[in-house]
Amino acid sequence: MVALKRVFRYLNGTKDWRLRFGGALGVALGGALGESTLRGEGEGEGALRCYVDSDYAGCLDDSKSTSGLVITFGGAVDWRSRKQKSTAQSTTDAEYYAFGVGCMRLTQISHLLNELGIQTIPHVFSDSQSLIASIKNTIYRGTAVAHIATMYYLAADMARDGEIDLSYVPTAEMLADCFTKPLPKTAFLKQCAAMGMIGIGLGNGLGNGLGTLGNGRGNGTGIGNGNGIGNAIGKQID
Residue 20 in contact with residue 138, Cβ under 8 Å? Predict the structure, then answer.
């Protein structure tokens, strides 16, 4: 009953939330996620970005991991959270699987954009330094599980052939984090805003608050105070 009440409280507190593309979203992505996130991938809302993440053995029934991904193109255009089919033997194995799934989906969207005359190099972000190092150095030390191994080699080929641009992003700036595990409310709201969500609890639009999200500049003192993300933050969710 307690869990059901929390679900309905969340639905009631977010019933006016909606996705908005463009506008101040580029500022929100730059301000909230840091300049390093935008470096090397073009400016504005036209950059195609994919954030991939995974937990490790999070399922209590079969110890399988959960993959999460968010693809943004001026706002979130694709997202998913799914339990992995194979049982990962390490955190890096789980990240390999999630990364491979994200690369396949990102490539599909990139090809569609290219057919529409929009040329872009997909940018993939992971918070696993071991995954990035092994792919860039073409060194695989994972398990022999077929699904995970093929995901790794697919991603490595794409990175080597220049089909994707692979970069590291800190866990605090990983948008897909909320699709793999429960997050504190402050972090959850920050990620929702960075994906393009607007509504009560996220401020009155993106223009006034999200340019300073996460660094405390401006009229407020960061998330939850003043205009860092809006005066109403938390009132509709608590």
Answer: no
